[in-house]
Specification:
Elements lengths: L2 E6 L3 H10 L7 E7 L2 H10 L4 E5 L7 H10 L5 E6 L4 H9 L4 E4 L4 H45 L23 E8 L8 H5 L2 H21 L3 E8 L2 E7 L8 H19 L4 E5 L3 E2 L3 H13 L7 E4 L8 H19 L2 H16 L3 H25 L4 H12 L4 H17 L1 H22 L6 H7 L4 H12 L3 H19 L4 H7 L5 H12 L3 H8 L13
Parallel strand pairs: 1-2, 1-3, 3-4, 4-5, 9-11
Antiparallel strand pairs: 6-8, 6-9, 6-10, 7-8
Length: 545
């Protein structure tokens, strides 16, 4: 597709000659329209986009300089070459002030004009190419930031509100966003996954990272707006923004899930299961939908590689879900180090089991077994067991045993963790203090959640939980707030350029820093500086925002 040119001159023979003599096609251009004065040209430019404007200076109704002034004031993107039979320096100076690319005197030297047009368009296309690269870079940065925020939303560490300063995307209707949710899970109970248990933490991190990359690359190839969020070791949540939100297309979403599973199987040589949430999920329902989907997958011992949830057919009854709720409370109590709550919940479970008949107990047994697997994965994230203890527990779970054995194992695991709770709590406090010190020391460089969690020897998911419990804010809220406060201080008290300030506080991309700062303060950096530097002189700026 060729770029478009608009020719403006009140002398028709000049525009006709320009159309015929200049090798537009060779230059990758086409003359899309002509006009006899500035008024007609403006009307055309409001209706259609032109990449190049060739314009005479002296014309009736509206001359060329007035036209150029209007084009610049209205911020119409277009390069301009002026044509004139007048050598008056005042015209040249005015043209330069309005950002005209070149000034050609009549009679028009067509060879010279052809060279000027080629040079102007080459520069324009190179600029567009660089802008496209910068936009892609910015989009990637914003997508990664969004994934961190989506993780916090899904874990219920933060809540969405339309005015939340961390939601920096430009969409005015973020509240109305809807996603298709696909949960991909690694079945740690299967025979094929026993090698996974032997992998080191480093090997598992690399493996999780590799799967995430395969999923992202496949979704990009498919042209889908997406986010891939690693929820825990061996579990990923894929959120896809559908093009058509009028109706949930089960067949299409199932096809997406199957494509992702095939990609992981092909490139990583591992088999995953996919659970699809039946229906669109809004932003403020992400946590609830994730927990529901995870619960349904845990409560379904045997399912197809791709399954929709919730489904009235084959779903667990209300008693089973309440039973699972008690089990989840045990995990929460263990994570908090609340020994009394653990004992209370275990006693309650024992009483429930004692009141059940044999038929119901036979249905509960697989539920307890799956819970124990779930518990092991969660405790693995917390790194509470030695390698020997973990191997011993896995061996026990590989055997078939009664519901009494299951219950004793659950109680034994939770009690072992709770017995360490005091030491663990003190250790956690020291770990979070170490993490805060590390963050404060490295705040003003591109530091990530993964890097900080690795520094203190925790998984990212458990680190996120402890950080929120300790400091009352999420990791990204803490680091971004501190950076913004530092930026406010630098803007108010120094003459550093905005680009330098952005780099100083850890933002390699200035436009991204500007977006975050505007959401945080309500002002762009230049306006904030102007408000807070009264009487301190003008700050040096490296271009407009």
């Amino acid at each position: 597709m060729r770029d478009k040119v608009l020719l403006v001159d009140d002398e028709s023979h000049i525009t006709r000659n320009l159309e015929k003599v200049i090798p537009w096609e060779m230059l990758g251009l086409e003359v899309a329209a002509t006009a006899k004065n500035g008024v007609d040209a403006l009307q055309l430019m409001e209706q259609e986009s032109f990449q190049l404007l060739l314009c005479d200076i002296r014309m009736p109704v509206m001359d060329g300089l007035e036209l150029v002034r209007e084009v610049r004031e209205r911020e119409i993107p277009c390069d301009i070459i002026m044509l004139s039979g007048y050598q008056d320096f005042a015209y040249t100076r005015a043209a330069i002030q309005y950002g005209v690319k070149d000034y050609i005197l009549k009679p028009i030297p067509y060879d010279e004009l052809t060279g000027v047009i080629a040079r102007v368009m080459a520069a324009q296309r190179e600029k567009a190419k660089q802008q496209s690269k910068e936009n892609k870079k910015l989009e990637k940065i914003m997508d990664l930031a969004s994934e961190k925020l989506l993780y916090d939303l899904m874990m219920d560490y933060t809540s969405f509100s339309e005015g939340h300063w961390l939601f920096i995307h430009d969409e005015p209707h973020m509240q109305m966003k809807q996603f298709c949710m696909i949960l991909l899970d690694f079945d740690v109970s299967s025979e094929d996954t026993k090698d996974w248990r032997e992998w080191s933490d480093k090997e598992r991190k690399l493996w999780n990272f590799a799967v995430s990359n395969v999923l992202r690359e496949k979704l990009q190839v498919e042209g889908l707006q997406h986010a891939v969020i690693g929820m825990r070791d061996g579990e990923w949540c894929v959120l896809i923004e559908p093009g058509d939100r009028s109706q949930f297309d089960c067949a299409k979403v199932k096809e997406w899930a199957a494509t992702l599973l095939s990609a992981v199987k092909e490139h990583i040589k591992l088999s995953l299961n996919a659970g699809i949430y039946r229906g669109f999920v809004e932003v403020d329902h992400l946590a609830k939908a994730y927990r529901k989907l995870q619960l349904c997958m845990q409560l379904t011992p045997v399912h197809a590689p791709v399954t929709f949830y919730p489904d009235a057919v084959g779903q667990s009854n209300q008693t089973d879900q309440l039973f699972w709720g008690a089990l989840e409370r045990i995990i929460d109590s263990v994570k908090r180090g609340d020994h009394e709550s653990v004992e209370r919940e275990c006693d309650g479970l024992s009483k429930q089991l004692q009141g059940m008949n044999n038929q119901h107990i036979s249905k509960v047994e697989p539920l307890l077994h799956f819970f124990l697997l779930h518990l092991m994965r969660e405790l693995k994230e917390m790194a509470v067991f030695t390698k020997e203890q973990e191997e011993s527990l896995w061996r026990k779970m590989d055997r078939r045993f009664s519901i009494k054995d299951l219950m004793e194992l659950i109680r034994g695991v939770t009690t072992a963790v709770s017995d360490k709770s005091l030491d663990k709590k003190k250790q956690s406090e020291n770990t979070m203090l170490e993490a805060k010190t590390y963050l404060d020391r490295n705040m003003y460089r591109d530091i990530s959640l993964d890097e900080t969690a690795m520094h203190v020897g925790l998984s990212t998911s458990y680190f996120s939980l402890l950080f929120k419990q300790t400091y009352g804010v999420t990791f990204i809220e803490y680091i971004t707030r501190n950076r913004m406060e530092k930026a406010k201080e630098l803007l108010a008290n120094t003459q550093m350029s905005i680009t330098s300030i952005a780099k100083e506080i850890g933002y390699a991309e200035r436009r991204y820093f500007t977006k975050v700062f505007m959401k945080y303060t309500g002002d762009n950096p230049s306006d904030y500086r102007a408000k807070h530097q009264h009487g301190k002189g003008e700050g040096h700026e490296d271009g407009k925002l």
